[in-house]
Amino acid sequence: MMTTLSEGQKAPDFTAKDQNGNPVSLKDFRGKKVVLYFYPEDDTPTCTIEACNLRDNYSNLKEAGLVIIGVSPDDKDSHKKFEKKYELPFILLEDSSKKIIDKYEVWGEKNMYGKKYMGLIRTTFLIDEKGIIIKVFKKPKSKIHSEEILKVVNGLTQ
Predict the structure, then answer these.
(1) Is this prediction's pTM over 0.85?
(2) CATH code, domain with 122
(3) Active-site residue identified among 11, 47, 66, 149
(4) How many CB atoms lie within 10 A of CB 114?
C-alpha cells in the first residue's frame, strides 16, 4: 500500500531513538524544513546509494535549511554501524516496532523478481516549518535524491 498522506496534510508526530540512543521528536524541528526519508535496511545496496547521495550533498541540503532524518526498521546498533561505515552526518531513527512506519503508511506489499512480500516502501516526505507535508516522493531516485529534494525546495523559494 502506498501512503495516503499527501501535500497539505499535517505530518504525523513521533518520538523515537536515534543511532546514539537519544530521543528525537518531529516537533523538535518546528521552524525548520525536514526531509523524513524511509528506507528498508541499513547497508543494503540501494539504501546505501541513497544515504551516500544525501551525505555527499549534505552541505547543500543544510544550506537550504533542511534537517535530514532517516527511518528504517533497523535497531540503533545497526544504524550506528551504518553511520560510522559511511560517515553519515544525519539522524537515523530506529523503528523496529514500526510505529512511525505505520503512521506514515510506508509498509506494504512489495514485489521483487515476481515474489511478493511485505516490507518498507522507500518514500520521502518533505515537511515544512509548521509540520505540514509539502512533498511526498513516492519513488525517490536514490542516486539523485538530494537533487530531487533541492529542486522542490528551490521551487518553493522562487
Answers:
(1) yes
(2) 3.40.30.10
(3) 47
(4) 5
